[in-house]
Structures are given as C-alpha cells and as structure tokens.
C-alpha cells in the first residue's frame, strides 16, 4: 500500500512516514502542492494524507484539483483547524476523514488502516482492482472491459503474484487449447491494463 503525505511541517511529515513505514506502508512526502501534483502524476497511491493549512495553496484546493482530474484516491485531512465550514467543505469535495492536530498515534493508525482495508471480494495489483463478486476489473477506479477468458487469466495471475502460473493452467480457460490463442490473450491484457506479464520459457507466465 502506497501513501502520499502533503505536509509543510517536515518534522511531522517525517515522523508520520517513519511510523507508517514501520507498519509496512510505502510513503512519499510532498511539502508543497506542486510537489504533490508532480508525485501524483508519476505515481499511483492508495491513500492521501493532506494538511489543510498550507502556505501556497490549501489542501482543499489541492484535492479539488485532483478530483477534477478524475483522481479518486481516498483522502484523510490532518489539521489544527476547527472551523466547521472549512471542514465541511473538505468533505463536500471528497475527503474521507479528518483528524485534528494534535492527535494520538494509535488513533491515527486506526484511521489510516481503516481506509486501506481491502474488501474480501477484491483482489488488488498496483493500480488495478478485481472485484471477484461482480467479475469487474478497474484501473485507477475506472472499469476496464475484459472478456471472460481475459478476466480469468488476469485474476489467476494476480492471485499468484510472484509465482509462475503454468501454461497448462492458463490454457484450461480456453474451450480449445491453443498456444497462439494464449499468447494473443496475454498481449491483449497487457495492452488494456499496461501491466508487465512475463513469459517464462517452458514454464508459464508471471506477474511480479
């Protein structure tokens, strides 16, 4: 799970990064809105943790701009602000939660983990989510249409991430088993989702 912290108080940001890293999260820090935009452009995050009161552009405006760019990443605000109108505006734009500074570390971790909890019927890989209850695949929150065979192959590879899935296992999804058909299907999945599926000669395929 990858988190972006937007906080101009570097001591606090660094402390939160250390805390979250100990909990096995991958964390980036941005001290300015410009830094945050740059990082969100080049990376996909599972959660944003934004301060509201920033010197150049407040955290609410940052979130507004991200939402207008169709970025639906969940956001938790941390702020010393207690102005109800400001907090209400943050939720109207799409904030998921709000934690008032100063806060207890235990409460902070509980809130973060609650937002990152993956539903039991969801299998995730980077910025891709597979809803196994509805057989739906999403990339960056947007549905990507896949055929039945493509879906089953992708799901099998993601569920076995880091392990080679044998060619025979993947061919079992075809009515008529054909190596060329498998290669074409793998290529279509790669093109549609822009993911790296490696062919291991004589063994099968793997997603790392």
Itemize the secondary structure elements and their pairings.
Blueprint: E1 2-6, H1 10-22, E2 26-30, H2 33-42, E3 47-51, H3 59-68, E4 75-79, H4 84-93, E5 97-100, H5 105-115, E6 122-125, E7 128-131, E8 136-139, E9 142-143, H6 148-159, E10 165-166, H7 167-171, H8 179-193, E11 198-200, E12 204-206
Parallel strand pairs: 1-2, 1-3, 3-4, 4-5
Antiparallel strand pairs: 6-7, 7-8, 8-9, 10-12, 11-12
Helix pairs in contact: 6-8
CATH superfamily grouping of the largest domain = Response regulator
Mean pLDDT: 88
Strand share of the residues?
15-25%
Helix/strand-derived class?
alpha/beta
Count of runs of 4 or more consecutive helical residues: 8
Measure the end-to-end span.
Answer: 15 Å
Proportion of helical residues: 40-55%
What is the global morphology?
elongated
The name CATH uses for the topology of the largest domain is Rossmann fold
> Helix and strand string, N-terminal first?
EHEHEHEHEHEEEEHEHHEE
